[in-house]
Amino acid sequence: ANKNINAKLVLLGDVGAGKSSLVLRFVKGQFVEFQESTIGAAFFSQTVAANEATVKFEIWDTAGQERYHSLAPMYYRGAAAAIIVYDITNQASFDRAKKWVQELQAQGNPNMVMALAGNKADMLDGRADAQTYAQENGLFFLETSAKTAANVNEIFYEIGKHFIFF
Ligand code: GTP
Ligand code: MG
């Protein structure tokens, strides 16, 4: 029998980390060099399938600018999954990602599936400290590139599998 699951997913992370670019790559297969900074939040949906089951992601792409921080709980409250995105070339964006993880651990849904995306992987070789951090905090971790598409479908697919198999 087919199983069709809807899952609300929120993207959080510093301004310019590449949240919108990851969503645009995942949903439309596109990348733009001059992606505009998100105002408030944007909504998308996309379905992944595994073993005759489907997960329809209802995706909230939030704005990283600090003045929108107070809106974030509206988007992560009730979310089944989160992707916390940072830019691997920018240490401050990794620090910001850790703050988001703390906020979700404190205020988010305790069963939330969380993934950490080290984005812009096309620009640098990987950082080992993020892998350790992710393991310690129970996060699924992948380095991604919205530009080359590396690991973009994979990160959504790995999250989707949690809802299908667990
Ligand atoms: P806010 O909406 O302001 O919070 O930013 P955001 O996290 O949505 O970042 P956005 O997707 O707008 O990307 C910011 C810039 O980084 C854009 O110019 C993108 O083209 C670029 N960018 C995003 N992902 C990648 C990537 O994987 N590789 C490279 N080289 N550039 C990227
Ligand atoms: Mg954006």
From TrEMBL:
GO-annotated cellular components: cytoplasm; endomembrane system
Keyword set, alphabetical order: GTP-binding, Lipoprotein, Membrane, Nucleotide-binding, Prenylation, Protein transport, Transport
GO annotation (BP), single: vacuolar transport
Protein topology in the membrane: Lipid-anchor
Locations listed in the record: Endomembrane system
Superkingdom classification of source: Eukaryota
GO-annotated molecular function: GTP binding; GTPase activity
Function (record text): Protein transport. Probably involved in vesicular traffic.
Family: Belongs to the small GTPase superfamily. Rab family.
Protein name: Ras-related protein Rab-5A
Origin species: Salvia splendens
Residue range from the parent sequence: 80 to 245 of 318
